[in-house]
Amino acid sequence: MSNVYFASARIKKWKYDDSIPGKLERLLNEIDLGKYLEPEEWVAVKTHFGSEGAHRIVRPVFLRKVVEALKGIGAKPFVTDTVRIKGLDYLEVANQNGINHLSCGAPVVLADGLYGRDNIMVKAGEILGEIAVASLIYDVPAMVVCSHVKGHINAGYGGAIKNVAMGGVSSGHRHLGWKYGRGAMHTIGEGKLVWDQEKCELCYQCEEICPLDAITFEDDKLIWDGDECWRCGRCVRVCQLEAVSLPCDDERFMRSLSEAAKAVLSTFKPNKVIYINFLTEIQPECDCMPAADVPVIQDQGILISDDIVSIEQASIDILLKAHPLPASMAQESDITPGEDILLKLHHRPYMLQVEEAERLGIGSRRYELVEI
């Protein structure tokens, strides 16, 4: 059974020690980073840079507290993520969202290079076979995974497993293509995009959001470059008329997330990865979207653990006790107190990713919650 340390978002005393940054400092002291990390050791602080318009990410003030704690034991941290849109554009987005060397106190770099092609093939299990792990994450000896917990249209719930799986893997391999990157998790077989011309109102939002210009329109007809596309599904998510679609299989997707997470974590020696889940600004959708809706659940707090499965189970258990927020997508969906908010919003069996991760041996769903 693993310990999961928890600090509530509620502030009951008007002093710094009871602030969220102050509580994060206490959590980092509680887990004792020196047990896991060595002086002079390079440490990746893995987070999500967000998108232009999507600002509800792990705030830079929290990343800086993590960086300062790592520096306090003599480690050498850097903040990182993998390419989700074109690399230079993604670094600009990070800067717009406040993630830069000045704000975080450490270099901000892309784990798989500006083109998203710097990766190493790693064995990944019966579904994925092999997966392209970002070379910087493959090489670095230690990592602190800072995950913004939220909903997700495909995963249902997005936390540490999704952050490690999707965020630790490149969009595709330099020579083998999207089938060995994130696209291998997102789609089945060839994963061909389907366009329903009768439903399409030619708003061109799918073309605008594509990070690789794989969608164009000629004579009011959609042209899709299947070789270039990395199957991220952003086009499907923004089409409210369901005019574009990609095949999906919920069970396969959840299990492949866990396989990819295990593949990424297999590149580290035991006890070299720490997880911090931020249950704040819990919006209904992923941080990779071009906008951020209002939160559907009130801020709950921050958790830290050395067990990825335990921290996910603890996070979900806390969310299951929370009430839906008014004037949010949860209220619009007529979700009532006591219901599983994220499940009702997205209808995805998100617990499968946690159960599969336990089955694969990367952690335990049994935990003890230690509140500070």
Low-confidence parts: none
Q: Helix share of residues? A: 25-40%
Number of domains: 2
What is the arithmetic mean of pLDDT?
Answer: 95
Number of helices: 14
What structural class do helix, strand and pairing data support? alpha/beta
Q: In angstroms, what separates the terminal alpha carbons?
A: 19 Å
CATH topology of the largest domain: Rossmann fold
- Shape descriptor: globular
**Number of distinct beta strands:** 16
CATH class of the largest domain: Alpha Beta
Q: Biggest β-sheet, characterized?
A: 8 strands, mixed
Strand/helix succession: EHEHEHHEEEHEEEHHEHEEHEHEEHHHHE
Rg is 20 Å
Largest sheet, spatial ordering of strands: 4-3-2-7-14-15-1-16
Give me the CATH architecture of the largest domain, please.
3-Layer(aba) Sandwich
**Share in β-strands:** 15-25%
Explain what this protein looks like in three dimensions.
This protein has 372 residues and is of the alpha/beta class. It has two domains: 2-183 and 250-371, Rossmann fold; 192-245, Alpha-Beta Plaits, CATH 3.30.70.20. Helices cover 31% and strands 20% of the residues. The chain contains 14 helices and 16 strands. It has helices at 20-31, 60-72, 87-96, 101-104, 135-139, 160-167, 183-186, 205-209, 234-238, 250-265, 308-320, 329-332, 341-346, 351-359, and strands at residues 2-8, 42-46, 76-81, 108-110, 119-125, 129-134, 142-148, 150-152, 156-158, 194-195, 215-218, 221-224, 244-245, 273-279, 301-305, 367-371. The strands form five sheets. An eight-stranded mixed sheet has the order 4-3-2-7-14-15-1-16, with helices on both faces. A two-stranded antiparallel ribbon has the order 5-6. The model has no long low-confidence stretch (mean pLDDT 95).
